[in-house]
Amino acid sequence: MMRLCIVGMGYSGAWIGRAAEAAGLEVVGVRRAASADVIGFDEAAVAGLVAEADFLLSSVPPWAEGDPVLARFGAALRARRGWTGYLSSTGVYGDCGGAWVDESAAVGTGRRTARSAADADWQALGATVFRLPGIYGPGRSAIEAVREGTARRVNRPGHVFSRVHVADIAGAVVASMKRDFRGVVNVADDLPAEPRAVTEFACGLLGSPLPPLLPLDEAGLSPMALGFWTERRRVANGRLTGMLGYRLRFPDYKSGLVACLRSAS
């Protein structure tokens, strides 16, 4: 049985692991702290897994000082012969003023300089780089935010973001492994939208009242959340649906949130 090693077995990694197992792969997960079914990042066996697994995926974000996976396992990564993947971010494109952006656009002009550097370093190793926008899915969506009273509606017309359901991240990664797809690919749905539209749709599904519409400086957002409001872009997915030939399970936030609601019922 062919083996996939996932370094960074978090929310997206777990979804990818389940999809890979359903496709007939053995999956070995690596995380900072070991558990019953996950290997610890500092264990000696990890270097061998990184070098020898048929498929390797890193979902570990870079630290301020650089990418910890590249720093620790650079030699093992350079020795690899199998498919290698890396989960990056569409934040590498910076602010595009709300315009559409594809994989040919310049990177490194935004606030995520460490991510841009890691993105380039993984490409230099021959990795397939998946650039992801806002990730949502069961347990991490506007449905939960509305139910928990943490949803916000920010009055900032034209401030558009892209997003993707976590099931489509998993599906795109598995499709890439099956087809030995190489290069950079945006994994985003077809319908970029203002965040308030997503909240309003979730409220409609739940029959909940709308949160108050607030200006950005009164929305009570954390510094990290505020960072997302410094940039606008619509992420094009033509390479995903064309060259890779992947068909989105959830082509817009509406179908995705309906599925999230059903899974939570």
Automatic annotation (TrEMBL):
Organism field: Sandaracinobacteroides saxicola
Assigned keywords, A-Z: NAD
Protein name per the record: SDR family NAD(P)-dependent oxidoreductase
